[in-house]
Design goal:
about 5% helix, 2 helices, mainly beta, 12-stranded parallel beta sheet
Length: about 300
């Protein structure tokens, strides 16, 4: 029987010290994302790398230590478990419809692989580059990996945590469909990233500018971060936490749909901001409070 990584007990270090309530909430959401596949389990006794091009179901290579090369295989229409397997080369593999787990595998390159439809778990893998991979459908786990480049990766459909990663920029990545945590990561530049659909946590990260990021669909946590400029960010659809942050300029930010905390912040002025949907916490920032009262608000 195939064993699936469903509780991430081996990767629960995804939110390391220090963990705020917001970060813990995100971690719990991430753990709930990986689900067991309903696909048929493929019997790898029938697998022949010289003839097999499609596996119609889940493939657990960890139980077949004699398989080292996938040969002509192009599609796996279910989950692919490479954890603790002897597979070294993905060969012609282009698509994995389900989850892909590379934990403690011998694989160093994804080769021709372009698409992972479910979760992609690279935790403690030897992979150094994502090569031709352009899309991950759901959760992406990059903690404690050797990955130095995201290659051609453009979209991540679920949440992602960059804690413990080695790469300094996000390469071609443009869109994250869930939450994104940069806590204690080496990432310095967001590059082409324009949308984070869920929460964005920049606490204890090396990021100083949000570059091309335009939308944060959930909460934005800048507390104890190095972010100075919000640049092209136009909307935060959840709460915004500037308390204890280094943020100076709000850039193009026009709306915060939830609460906004400016207490003990370094924000110099509110700029284009003209809508806050929830409570506002000014603390001792009477200058910002005065500026806010003078700003013409849009009609609700």
């Amino acid at each position: 029987m195939v064993t699936f990584l469903t509780d991430f007990s081996e990767v629960k270090g995804s939110i390391p010290f220090p963990a705020t309530k917001k970060q813990t909430k995100m971690s719990n959401q991430v753990k709930k994302q990986t689900k067991m596949s309903n696909q048929v389990i493929y019997d790898l006794k029938d697998f022949d790398p010289k003839t097999t091009e499609i596996i119609d179901g889940d493939a657990d290579f960890s139980t077949f230590q004699n398989i080292t090369d996938l040969g002509l295989l192009k599609n796996i229409n279910g989950n692919a478990i490479f954890k603790n397997s002897k597979v070294e080369n993905l060969g012609n593999l282009e698509l994995i419809k389900g989850n892909a787990i590379f934990t403690n595998s011998e694989i160093q390159s994804l080769g021709k692989l372009e698409y992972i439809g479910g979760d992609a778990v690279f935790y403690k893998s030897k992979i150094r580059s994502l090569e031709n991979l352009t899309s991950i459908g759901e959760l992406a786990v990059f903690m404690d990996t050797e990955i130095e480049s995201l290659g051609k990766l453009r979209t991540i459909g679920g949440s992602v945590q960059f804690t413990g990663t080695k790469f300094k920029d996000l390469g071609e990545l443009e869109w994250i469909g869930g939450n994104a945590s940069f806590v204690l990561s080496e990432v310095e530049e967001l590059g082409k990233l324009h949308t984070i659909c869920g929460d964005a946590i920049f606490s204890f990260s090396k990021i100083s500018s949000l570059d091309n990021l335009e939308v944060i669909g959930g909460d934005a946590d800048f507390e104890d971060s190095n972010v100075l400029f919000l640049e092209n960010l136009m909307t935060i659809r959840g709460n915004a936490y500037f308390e204890g942050s280094e943020v100076l300029h709000l850039g193009e930010l026009k709306s915060i749909m939830g609460n906004a905390d400016f207490s003990e912040s370094n924000v110099e002025f509110l700029g284009f901001l003209n809508f806050i949907g929830g409570e506002i916490y000014w603390g001792e920032r009477t200058d910002l409070k005065k500026e806010w009262k003078a700003i013409k608000k849009p009609k609700r």
